[in-house]
Amino acid sequence: SGPLLVDRFVSASSANDAKDSLQAICTALQSTNDHLEPSSIWGEENILDGFLEVMASNEYRNMPVDQGTPLVCQIYTEFLKSRDSRIILQQPEPGRLVRSLLDVISNTEDSSYS
Q1: Continuous H helices in 47-108
Q2: Residue 70 has pLDDT above 60, yes or no
Q3: Cα of 36 vs its chain's centroid, Å
Q4: Which of 2, 29, 59, 82 has its CA 20 to 30 A from that of 36?
């Protein structure tokens, strides 16, 4: 189920597709029945770049994603509950997650993400 959810987000063709995919990933990570392991997501190519893009700009591929930043923050909160959470802090490259979070906190127009 993880790769399917990832593919659905990465290939989103509309803002609603992106939002729905983020919601589905978040729900699957929080679910006790169909629990999705964070490691099944963060190893997928392009997914973390997409998450950080949404987190920093509330957009995915130039499509505004309603509630995108809060959804991605919830996903990262679930990631950090994993015992392998150190891995996610270094992906997709060391320091990039922290820079994106600082952009969100400072809410600047000139993002250091890009």
Answers
A1: 47-57, 68-80, 85-89, 96-106
A2: yes
A3: 14
A4: 59
